[in-house]
Amino acid sequence: AVAGVATHLRLAADDLLLGDYASLDVLVAEITTPAWTPLFPLASAVVTDIGGPLSHGSIVAREYGIPAVVGIPGATTAIATGQRLRIDGGAGWVEFVDEPQDAADPEAALS
Hints:
Blueprint (H helix, E strand, L loop, with lengths): L1 E7 L17 E4 L15 E4 L7 H9 L3 E2 L5 H4 L5 E5 L4 E4 L15
Parallel strand pairs: 1-2, 2-3, 3-4
Antiparallel strand pairs: 1-5, 5-6
């Protein structure tokens, strides 16, 4: 498992290159596409709402050797930027290290 701080990105693909993501740790997004690939080397892990074993996020994360948990509906709603997470890509779970401040069920891990 790896721990890190979430960076929640809700951007159109054209806006990805406009940001400064030097501090990107855990990439949290609804979905990733090839336009997101330059962000993967900056991430310690990837979490997405949509995806599966053959989705862009899983394949590119495997290529870079970083854990990914994809296909978790509501992950981008439950995870806020700056929140500390623990991710286990092999087991397929995401855990809050510090409790979310406004979550309805802060003790629930995402899986």
